[in-house]
């Protein structure tokens, strides 16, 4: 009887085969420590840190293009290059240039840790030189120094050399799907669906077909090797897409772009995919449309280039090429979002590396700063003091 009872006891607590086993990890991804969402790298480790660890699978990253679309195009290529290095499938859509030409211009990865360390040591050395060259009050000298870069050394994500191109062998190691608007419209030029223009409708159908056929939506249970689809759409909303939101304050079809983003987010939510979109926000005259586009995106990052502006020749910004504005970060499985402790961000393009760093301005107005810059700063200080109800300081410096 005791033996029979023991047999029954053992059978009651037998583990089901396969129970407790973790699902196979997807290449190039990791779960978030804060909210458990699956993350993938944007291709720029410093941008991953700003976004709360990376780009969550099933979300949309919107990049507001700079004035000449130079630096936003780099972020676009970083995202695609990271997908190739991680073995992800790619879907590249453009109305400006052929996707094959975009893939040929992707930067080469720095897979060797020695080169990676050299770049980080070089950035750290410049940070120390910058801190040492600053003239600060004696009471602040013993405080801990602030990191110039918002990121730390991590194995998640890769670094890329913008001075070199990715090898054709590495590009051909993954499956790449392309969508070139001029070629697609030549087959069915008058097709219109979902009450939007033909370019957006064709693009949505292509994305939906790839997600379904390749099994990114989980519709194929027999597929053993699961993978992630990275979607890249270049200059969405421009005139080349057949949209007039960048041409008029009252466009003929103001809802095509927002309808496209609404349907796209639905496709992303139910599939193993992530998307990056660049938008010429500076050309959109109707700000209400841009606000709706922002609300329909999960993450929104804007780039403000110094090219052609007064800041390009201002000695205060000589170490940077533009500013980074983080407009929106998603709230994933929580009531709050991962907000970075750094609000003032800037970017610089070095010979080999594009980095996002904390914006540091020299604290003292030395002889290296022009008189016009001093007057500008003094005028800004006057406006701030008058707004706070303090005593106006005119164009003189504060005396401590």
Commentary on this structure:
There is one protein chain. By secondary structure, this protein is an alpha/beta fold. The chain is built from eleven helices and 14 strands. The protein has helices spanning 2-12, 45-50, 71-86, 99-104, 113-133, 168-171, 181-187, 198-213, 256-269, 287-295, 371-387, and strands at 29-31, 38-40, 55-56, 60-64, 89-94, 107-109, 160-165, 176-180, 229-233, 273-279, 299-305, 322-328, 345-349, 354-358. The strands form three sheets. It has a nine-stranded mixed β-sheet, with helices on both faces. Strands 1-2-3 form a three-stranded antiparallel β-sheet, with no helix packed on it. It has a two-stranded antiparallel ribbon with strand order 6-7. A hairpin with a 6-residue loop joins β1 and β2 (38-40). It is globular, with a radius of gyration of 25 Å. It starts with a helix and ends in a 13-residue tail after the last helix.
Task: Give the uncertain stretches in residue-range form.
Answer: 130-148, 380-396
Shape type: globular
Rg: 25 Å
Major sheet attributes: 9 strands, mixed
| Amino- and carboxy-terminal Cα gap | 91 Å
- Percent helix range: 25-40%
Sketch the topology as an H/E string, one letter per element.
Answer: HEEHEEHEHEHEHEHHEHEHEEEEH
**How many E-type strands?**
14
Biggest sheet strand line-up: 8-5-9-10-4-11-12-13-14
Assembly form of the protein: single chain
> How large is the share of residues in beta strands?
15-25%
Task: Count every helix, treating DSSP H or I runs of 4 or more residues as helices.
Answer: 11
Q: What number is the mean pLDDT?
A: 79
Structural class: alpha/beta
């Amino acid at each position: 009887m005791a033996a029979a009872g023991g047999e029954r006891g053992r059978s009651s607590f037998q583990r089901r085969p396969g129970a407790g086993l973790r699902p196979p990890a997807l290449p190039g991804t990791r779960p978030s420590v804060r909210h458990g969402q699956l993350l993938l790298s944007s291709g720029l480790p410093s941008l991953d840190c700003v976004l709360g660890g990376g780009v969550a699978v099933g979300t949309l990253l919107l990049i507001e293009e700079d004035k000449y679309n130079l630096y936003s195009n780099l972020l676009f290529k970083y995202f695609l290059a990271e997908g190739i290095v991680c073995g992800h499938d790619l879907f590249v859509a453009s109305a400006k240039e052929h996707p094959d030409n975009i893939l040929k211009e992707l930067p080469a990865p720095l897979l060797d840790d020695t080169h990676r360390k050299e770049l980080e040591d070089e950035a750290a050395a410049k940070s120390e030189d910058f801190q040492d060259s600053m003239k600060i009050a004696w009471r602040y000298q013993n405080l801990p120094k602030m990191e110039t870069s918002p990121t730390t050394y991590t194995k998640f994500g890769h670094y890329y050399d913008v001075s070199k191109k990715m090898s054709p062998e590495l590009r051909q190691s993954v499956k790449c799907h392309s969508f070139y608007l001029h070629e697609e419209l030549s087959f069915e030029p008058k097709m219109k669906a979902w009450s939007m223009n033909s370019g957006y409708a064709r693009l949505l159908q292509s994305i939906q077909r790839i997600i379904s056929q390749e099994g990114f939506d989980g519709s194929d249970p027999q597929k053993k090797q699961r993978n992630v689809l990275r979607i890249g759409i270049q200059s969405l909303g421009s005139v080349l897409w057949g949209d007039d939101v960048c041409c008029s304050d009252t466009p003929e079809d103001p809802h095509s772009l927002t309808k496209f983003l609404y349907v796209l987010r639905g496709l992303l939510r139910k599939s193993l995919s992530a998307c990056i979109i660049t938008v010429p926000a500076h050309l959109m005259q109707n700000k209400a449309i841009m606000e709706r586009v922002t609300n329909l995106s999960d993450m929104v990052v804007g780039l403000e280039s110094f090219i052609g502006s007064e800041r390009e020749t201002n000695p205060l910004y000589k170490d940077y090429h533009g500013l980074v504005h983080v407009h929106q970060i998603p709230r994933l499985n929580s009531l709050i979002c991962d907000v970075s402790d750094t609000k003032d961000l800037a970017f610089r393009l070095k010979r080999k590396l594009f980095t996002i760093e904390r914006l540091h301005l020299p604290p003292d107005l030395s002889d290296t700063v022009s008189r016009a810059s001093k007057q500008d700063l003094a005028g800004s200080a006057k406006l701030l003091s008058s707004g706070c109800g303090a005593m106006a300081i005119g164009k003189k410096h504060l005396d401590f």
